[in-house]
Amino acid sequence: MQTILCPLCEQDSTLLVNRRRERDLPITTVECRQCGLVYHNPVIEDRDRQAAAISSRQWHTGAMDNTRQLAKLEKRWHLQWPLIQPVFETGGSVLEIGCGLGLVSGKLKSLGAEVWAVEPDPDQAAYARENYGLEVVPLHFEDVSFGAQQFDLILASHVIEHFPDPLAFLRQVRTLAHPDTWLFLETPNVLAPKVSYRRMFSPAHNFYFAPQTLGWLLAKAGWRQENLRIFRRDSFQILARPAPPQQPAVDPDMARQVMVALNRHRYLYYLKLLFIWRKLPWWQKYWMYQPR
Q1: CB neighbourhood size of 153 (10 A)
Q2: What order do you get walking across the sheet with 14-22 strand by strand?
Q3: 85: which DSSP letter?
Q4: Interval 4-44: pLDDT, tens
Q5: What would the pLDDT profile of 253-263 be if each residue is shown by its tens digit?
Q6: Which of 6, 13, 97, 210 has the fewest Cβ atoms within 10 Å of its own Cβ atom?
Q7: Would you say 170 and 221 are in contact if contact means Cβ atoms under 8 Å apart?
């Protein structure tokens, strides 16, 4: 575990959000007073998860149940495609970082894309290779060398929140982009979580973004946000293009907004029976995953 400064503000001025212990991992979650970015500090590294004898995937899904997981990924894909479709080009080069079981990369390959995929979990990488015919690099993204390769479309769905340094991640992705590259990101929204307050702050994730905080981080890393899609609950999606890095103009009120949202969620999740509603398919379709 490593103690860090806020990647956005480069300061250590934080408020305590939550503290817990899981499998002997002490998890301290804080919020930056300056920008509202929420993160574990110290951050949890893969070697810490390995010492606890459980992978990042297992923190999320437990035993590997491909049928159930693929059904969830299929639903997610139908929510992602409306943002991806307008920028997708048949014959273009695509990189998916954290491809998981390979469903998204497999669909893009079937549509005529030339697909590269990275997946550090060996079981999921093997499944993606065997079932979708993908060339999957079974390494952590930080350890992969692409040479001079640049991509037309780069996807990272529910990935950036896992990294101990999301700014470094975005900067590394920037080196794989040409001026017309599109970057697609999706990540849970700390302003509208779908899980309970306690389950939010797990060892699987290190960072908890609001659309604003991730947008500022993108600007700092050399990306310009072009499109934003926020669902009423659970997650948000961003499309970005390369741009000169710039120090973002942080809204000083963002920290207060994040803390208010977290405090409300702490009791409204149970008061409004969200733990029941969020599992109902019709509620998901007609409310939860409707854009705000």
Answers
A1: 22
A2: 14-22, 25-32, 38-40, 207-208
A3: G
A4: 999 999 999 999 999 988 878 889 999 999 999 999 999 98
A5: 999 999 999 99
A6: 13
A7: yes
